[in-house]
Amino acid sequence: MSDKLKDAKIIFVVGGPGSGKGTQCEKVVAKYGYTHLSSGDLLRAEVGSGSERGKQLSAIMQRGELVPLDTVLDMIKEAMIAKADVSKGYLIDGYPREVKQGEEFEKKIGAPSLLLYIDAKAETMVSRLMKRGETSGRADDNEETIKKRLDLYYKATEPVIAFYEGRGIVRKIDSEGAVDVVFSNVAKAIDGLK
Ligand SMILES: Nc1ncnc2c1ncn2[C@@H]1O[C@H](COP(=O)(O)OP(=O)(O)O)[C@@H](O)[C@H]1O
Ligand SMILES: Nc1ncnc2c1ncn2[C@H]1C[C@H](O)[C@@H](COP(=O)(O)OP(=O)(O)O)O1
Ligand SMILES: [Mg+2]
């Protein structure tokens, strides 16, 4: 346990690929000043660095698979510590993606006070990702990889919701509607924390 993160307020943002996690996190940052850490963005930064590890991560992500737990957890922990002196709290976007990740996070960093479950229909996620893929330049925003990511989400990530539901900290947010409508419900969930 790192004592710099001992009392950190932590919100997990969990949802399928293309559900709207990143979009909602940006609006939470603007309104509440939380520190937004996206596991995918951290991984893509490592890929962009051209490092040997980045090359391995890129191959995994292009297949729509999960990267090794220790890799993504260490990256998030490092990024949290780097901001510990200025952070009002952390939005952990895209993690945990399996129950084991949640358990390891709590051993090494701490427990979340809220899990925002950003929920959209499969066909909505597919169409949003195909559209995002037109401009994102992401190697995983293509039909074949999207299908793998969705399958993995239903198999490995949805059990995370049930795991934390048992603690009563899950707030399910319908992400089908317009961005601002979705955000009004995200804000209600966060305001309910105080
Ligand atoms: N409520 C919404 N309505 C329409 N499009 C949305 C909505 N939320 C997100 N999007 C779009 O869908 C795509 C995926 O959103 P993003 O926030 O990147 O999701 P995630 O981080 O969960 O993959 C983006 O192109 C984004 O602009
Ligand atoms: N917690 C995690 N564990 C393992 N792999 C992860 C991960 N978070 C992200 N990745 C890998 C697999 C994901 O398909 C890829 C992109 O993640 P992302 O940017 O969060 O996707 P999206 O925002 O489309 O949901 O990075
Ligand atoms: Mg995202």
Automatic annotation (TrEMBL):
Q: Where are the annotated segments for NMPbind?
A: 38-67
GO MF annotation list: AMP kinase activity; ATP binding; nucleoside diphosphate kinase activity
Residues annotated as binding AMP are S39, R44, E65, L66, V67, G94, Y95, P96, R97, Q101, R138, R149
Q: Which GO terms describe its biological process?
A: ADP biosynthetic process; AMP metabolic process; ATP metabolic process; nucleoside triphosphate biosynthetic process
Gene3D superfamilies linked? P-loop containing nucleotide triphosphate hydrolases (3.40.50.300)
> Where are the stretches annotated LID?
131-141
Enumerate the catalysed reactions.
dAMP + ATP = dADP + ADP; GTP + UDP = UTP + GDP; dTDP + GTP = dTTP + GDP; UDP + ATP = UTP + ADP
PANTHER family in the cross-refs: NUCLEOTIDE KINASE (PTHR23359)
Domain remark in the UniProt entry: Consists of three domains, a large central CORE domain and two small peripheral domains, NMPbind and LID, which undergo movements during catalysis. The LID domain closes over the site of phosphoryl transfer upon ATP binding. Assembling and dissambling the active center during each catalytic cycle provides an effective means to prevent ATP hydrolysis.
Please identify the protein, giving its name as recorded.
Adenylate kinase isoenzyme 1
The gene name on file is AK1
